[in-house]
Every structure is written in C-alpha cells, then in structure tokens.
# Entry
Amino acid sequence: MKINRSGIGYPVVLLQAVVEILLLFPLIYIPAYYLLSAESLWGWPALILAGYVLGYSGTRVWKLSRLASAGLWACITASVLAIAMTGIGPALLFTWPMMFAAGYRGIRMAHNGWDALFPGPYYLAGLLMHGGSSFVLSFQESVHDLRTMLAWTGALALIATLLVLNQRMVLEQTLPGKGAPVLERRVLRHNRALIVILLLITAAVVVLPRLQQFVGDMIRRFAAWIAQWFQSTPSEVPPPEPEVIPPTPELPFGDETPSPSPWLALLEQIVIYLVYALLIAALVFALYRLGKHLPRLLRKLSAWMNRRFSHREGQEMLGYADEIEQIEHEPAGRKLLQGLRRRFAVQRDEPAADNAAAVRQTYRRILSRKIREGYHWNAALTPRETGRDLDHWKGTGGEAESELPPELIELYEVARYGGRAPSDEEVQRVLKASKRHKE
Amino acid sequence: MDAYWMLLLAALVIGFQSFIFRKTAFRKLSYSRSFQVSSCYEGDKIELMETIGNRKALPVPWLRVESRFRTGLLFGSQLNLDISEGQHSQNHKSFFSLMPWTKIVRRHQITAARRGVYKLGTVTMTSGDLLGLSSMVRSQALEGELTVYPNPIDMHNMELPVRSWIGDLVVRRWIMEDPFLQSGVRAYRSGDPLKDIHWKASAKAGSLQVHQRDTTADGRVLIYLNVEDHEQMWTHATKPEPIEYGIRLTAGIVVHLLSQGMEAGFGTNGTLEDEPETHVSIPVTGGKNHQEQILSTLARLELTRRMSFHDYLAAELERLEEARDILILSTYISPRLEEMLSRFVSRGHTVTIHILDQQADGDQEESA
# Structure
C-alpha cells in the first residue's frame, strides 16, 4: 500500500470489481451453487460486488492504509454481509472468507493501480480456472445451467482479458522508460477494433457448429414440408399432433401406411441437396458482399473516429502532425479474377494481315510455347542464334529435329528485317513445317 | 458449448493471429525518413518527415521505429516518444498503428540547436501481434543528412575592423596600403621605397619625408582559426566556448564579406567529422557556393586538433603564393606564434590577431 488513490472514483472501483468477479467466477460461484439456495444464489455475485464497494468506501472515509485497520474493516464488512446472506451455518465457512477477500480487495483498490492489482498472469489464471472447471463439470449432466453460466462468464472474462492485455502490451511497447506511458488515442482505437474483430472471428468459430446444426434443422424441416406436397401420406409430421384416428376399415390406403415410392424419395434427396446448395451459395454471396464492402466501411468508420477524436491541440501536444491517406489499390477480388484469367487463358492470335505478319506470328507462337515449357529466351540473340540455343536446350540436333524449322527462321528474317514480302508458297511451306511443332 | 471448448478455440485463433502477424509484419511495409531541408543555421526550426506505408490488406497493429541522433536536435514535446538524451546521442522513438492500405506522413517539429552534421543513419523497426506473443525486428539503413551551420555573428555590432572591409573606405592601418590614396606625409622609415619620398616636404622639414598612404581593403581575407584552447592542449579542447565563439565569428565574417562581393578563405588546425586527416585550407575566393563550402566546413569542424597551430601556420606559409590579409582567431598568443606570424609579415602578408575570449565583448586585438 503505497499511494493513496482514494480519489479514483466508484465507477473505476466497480469496473475493477466486475473484472475480478468475472475472472474468479468459478471460484466464487461453483461452491455457492452447491452450498446456497437457489433464491440466494442469484444475489451472491451482487453481494460480492457490495463487499468491494464497502471496502473501498471504508478507506475513503478512514484512509485505511495500515494492514491492521484494513483487515479489521474487511472483517466487519464480511461478517455483516455473510451473516446477512447465509446466517450462522456451515455455508458461513465459505461466504465469510469470500466477503473478507472482496472487502480487502476493495480497500486495496484505493491504494494500488490496476496494473499492480491485476498482473498479466492473473488473467491467464482466471481463464484457466474457467476452462478447467468447465471441463470437469462437462461430465455432469445435472449442472447444465451452471455450465451455461460458466460459458457466458468465460466469454466475458476472455473479452476483458484480451482488451486489457492488448492495451497493456501496446503501452509497454512504447518503451516509456521512467515516465508514464502515453499513447496516441488512434493507436489504442485501432488495437481495440482489431481485438473486437478477433473476438468476432472467435465467436464465429465457436458458434459455427451450432449454426450448422441450426441450418441443418431448418433445411430438414423445409425439405420435409416440400416432400409433403408429393406424398399422400406425410412421411414425417413434426410436431406430432394429438389427432384421433377413426377406426375405419375402409381407409383408402389400406391398414398400413405405405412407404413412399422410390422416385419420391429421390426427389426429396434432390430437393434437400438443392436447398443446401442454394443456402450455401447465398451464404457465400453474402460473405463476398460483406468482404467487399467491409474494408470501405471500416475505413469510413476509422476516418470518422479520427475526425471525431483527433483534436488539433492534441497533435500540438504530441509535437508532430500526421497526414493519413489511403493507398490506391486494386480490389482483391478483381486481382484474383485477373490472375485466374491469365492462368487459364488460351491465347488466340488475331488473323494475320499479310504473309509477313503470318510468318512472324508463327515464329512468335512457337517461341512462346517453348518459353512456357521452360526455355529462357534471350532477347539479345538473333533468330538463328535463338534456334541453335533452343536446340541446345532441348538436346535436339539436325534439321529434322530442330525446334524452330530453318525455313521458318529464314523466312522470319526476311519478313522481319528484309525488304520483300514472303510469297504465298513460302508461307504455306513454313506453315506446314511448323505444324509439326503443334503436336 | 462449454467454456473450455470456447477458450480452446479462442487460444487457437489467438495463436493463428500471432502466426499471421509474425509472417506479414514487414511485408509490403515501406518506411522512409528525410529532413525538410539539407542545411540550416543554428536555431532554425525545421521538419523531420517520416513516411510509412502499409500496402497490404492486413493491418499492422503496432510498429515502433527507433533511431539515434546526435544531441543538438531538439524535438518538440512528444508524449508518445521517449527521447533519452545522453552526452553525445539521443534515442528517438516513433509509434505507429497502420490499417490496411494506409500511408502516414508524420512531420516532427525540431530545432537545430547546435551546429554539426546530423545523419539519419539506421532505424530499427519492431512490430508484432495483438497480444505481444511474437515480435519481429528489422533494421533499415537510411540516407540523408542535415548540415547545421553555425549561427553567424552580426558584424554590424562588432568592434572588429572587418566591418569596414568594403570598397575603398579608409580602414585601419593593418590592411595593405593603397598606393593610390594619399593622406599626407610622415617621416621616412627604413624600408620605405625611394619613390615615395616627398622631396618638397623633405626640404621643408630638413629630414626625409615620405608620402603617407591610407589603406583600403582589397577585399580578400584569409581567416585562420586555432582550435587549441591553450598552448599545451593535447588533443581535445577542454574549454570549447571560446572556440565555438570563434567559429560563429568566422561564419559572421565570411557571410559579411561574401555578401559584399568580397572574397574570403578559411583554414584551421582542427579535424573534420569523418575526415580526421584532412588538412583544412579553403582558398580565398567568392560566391555563394564558396560561402556554403566554408559554412559546411565550420559545421563539420570538431574541436580536436590535427596539429599544433604553429605547425599548421608553417605549412600554410609555404603554401601561400600571394600576399594575403590574414585574420588569426586564437584563444592565446605565444612568443612562438608571434615569431611565426612575423614570418608571414616578412613575406608581405598583413596579419591581424583577434583573441577569442569567453565573453564576446572582451575581445582583444593586435595587429602586426
């Protein structure tokens, strides 16, 4: 107990108390679940909170800076609240220490900062406590409501842990040295937003099986409803109606309900799959639209928050001025589509305008094919040198096996560098020779 | 779903985000830094600009940029920075958080408090994930420097005759005599040329009289600055204040003369930053570029002597080909130095000595 922080205020004390109750909820609630009655169980967390407030109030009034005085006040508040809760009985052995601890922690909140009261391992211990107790209780079916309660408090404890640890980590990373760490609000806002996104992703992963189950149930109900239109007798009637079946022997379908015909069963399966496919497609489309617009919405939200919370005087205090701008870029979806198009595109040449263009097109097509096969084309080489280099690369030799037919090379040089246009016969001869390379 | 399963999934997601941020922290992240200007004077306020860009779809939750500067640059009040000042250098830190496809240009207001050359050097960038489970460090070398010139002393308030080194104004006797400007007669002294004898005045006076010529500036001054704060100085000056004053005085004289269209040169027995073996001797000439050259040399001058001032002057005496008006700025004058300076005079140079004192007003002047 070093610094008197009795002026920190009740809201901060309440917040700190709520966080601690969340973190230690299994320790506080599970024994109470078994020891206390159902009526008093609901008020138990509130009473713990009251213990914190009473402890803090005592140190505000009497400045309980010594261990003895703080302990005495905690004893008094614990006795009053615990006895009021449970009376004198065996349960007092549990409630009194809890109330004493709450009162004492309330007193300490006036003297110690949040970092000292809640070090990093404290949060991890709380989460481990939630996980461990939940795992143990999962083998008992009778405490389903307790498990649900632990799941919710565990989620809240996780949210508090991530937000606090993130802020603490960011402040530490500023390397403040001897002074108090001061961080620009924008950095904290960004990090909190990212933590929220992380929590949403976690929630999506957690909720996904339930979501799948829910969607599956909906699909099955919808399929059954559709199948009813194709069947005289419904194969499935959810929910079953308490209907009185008249004992009439002249039932048109006999004594037994006939099984649906195979084609109806097949149709039912087809409809089920179609519905699945439509729902999945709709979900994917919705996610695509969300992913397409979410960055823009986040940027707008960030810009609005920056305008709202970034004051000029704040920047002057910081000693610098930031100019934030968005970098123009191609949307990821369009880039992906273009990449796919390039990957799978089939090159189709435009029809050649003349013989020279046809020869050059043929040469280029063969060379492009070789490059795709792995040949490293050197632009500094002449066509003849390129032909020899290709043969060397492929390990071929002789005119019959040349990758680039010599007549093509010769005619290409004429078409590209020469002063005359190739004749039709020359072009046809070259095209025939090059056809061999198409195969 | 039970709490343990939820917490386990959360741990997996947290681990995955740590992995992702560790892999992509510095990918497509660009950083640059530059000064607003390449040179300025002491006391000027300038900007240091940091430009950082995140060209990817993933954010950078936090990024810390650390660098070292020589002391002498004063940063403004910056609450989210930690500037730890030492004797020779200070640590500067910037903290960023970048959203996807975002660029931040940060302008720091700094004051160039001390002369010198300030290089941007190497920066160290540290980044990591949202919970500090992993962090990555990367160093990047930067080009660019800022030269802070010494603040020139205003010559209009100085007692030095330098303020009259303009055109054909009459100046004090220590400047080379102007043979075209006669102001009377005086008694003959040994060494006066015979052509200067005023025969009529000599006949009247009964002794040889010579024409007395007033002096005007020829506008070409060579300044020698001695970085020794006392005669027995070893290597580094222990009392830098007078020498720093001498540096500012040199800057003031040079700026004044060159702004009037005159010429100036500079030399010193001190060392230059990054060039400890360079013999500092800037010839007499004029122009804006020459002024920047001298000021830049003064900015880079360290108060460490390369050789004794006596030896330096001896080397300069051999090097000088034409007669010069020489101004000596030194914290002391010894018989040995006086003997050296008389050799300058015997070679036709004109020498003025200005003793550098800690108080700028208490300057002393001698002329040879």
Summary: The beta strands of chain A are 320-326.
